Amino acid sequence: MKFLALSMFGAASAFAPASPAFTRKSSVQMALPAGVKPILIGVAADSGCGKSTFMRRLTNTFGGETVGPLGGGFDAGSWETNTLVSDLTTVICLDDYHLNDRGGRKVTQRTALDPLENNFDLMFEQMAALKNGETVAKPIYNHVNGTLDTPETIEPTPIIIIEGLHPMHDARVRDLLDFSLYLD
After folding, report:
1. Carries keyword Nucleotide-binding (predicted)?
2. Domain with 46 in it: what CATH number?
3. Global confidence as pTM
């Protein structure tokens, strides 16, 4: 039933007229027509419950060429990212908004699961900017070594999905969401 709620809106009918005039910006992303705002979907779930798998399947449902993660990954000897991008969707992992790296959390004696370890102000600013069609320099939390890596450039796509433990925790972010889902 939760997935049905997502599949009820087709890519064209949800954010644009039946025959949208989208233009490709690159081989991966489509440019939004002037005045069209992206749909913002929040997906909350506990650690290890399958959010990433669900996000890959959801991205495939909306179609388009999929790349990811951005940033080169480990094979290129570069920094890692949690962002998944296709022609129509961008999936942002909210772990990227951790305030501290692993070393910093040892000092604060909080886990990454604690809402106090998240930068909700930056998350709100960047989600509002993306919803308004603006490009952002999104932080990256590197799960392999526990560091905060160099930010990556994220351009808005027609559908932006934010996933993590706390996408609905902050009322400002919650108010930006067009759809909210909780995965059990």
Report:
1. yes
2. 3.40.50.300
3. 0.74
